Amino acid sequence: MTNDEILILLSEAFEFAAPEKAEAIEALTMESTLDEFGVSSIVALEMAGYIEEKLGIQFADDELAQIGTIKGFVNLIRQYTKALA
């Protein structure tokens, strides 16, 4: 997956998990932190669940707990999708 494809997937996951903040999606960049968007740990878990379902993968809980940026999410998704290839 390319960075653009992953960012689209993350945008979809963000909209799914926090629809009330949908307008913030346009500002999503690789350098964005989850805190910037008011993403709580619950929203982050809902985003992860959306991504897991879409890609047919299962993230390790300890890896999810360490994510604080969009880039961290991108790297984790890339790691798991490479394992599928």
Largest sheet: none
Task: Look at the helices and sheets and give the structural class.
Answer: mainly alpha
Range of strand content: under 5%
Shape: globular
Count of DSSP strands? 0
Mean of residue pLDDT values = 86
- CA-atom Rg in angstroms: 12 Å
Number of alpha- plus pi-helical segments: 4
Distance between the termini: 10 Å
Structure in words:
The structure is a single chain. The protein is mostly helical and 85 residues long. The protein contains 4 helices and no strands. Helix 1 (3-17) crosses helix 2 (41-55) and helix 1 (3-17) packs across helix 4 (70-84).
Q: Which keywords apply here?
A:
85 residues, mainly alpha, 59% helix, globular
Short description:
The protein contains 4 helices and no strands. By secondary structure, the protein is mainly α.
Strand and helix layout:
Elements: H1 3-17, H2 41-55, H3 61-65, H4 70-84
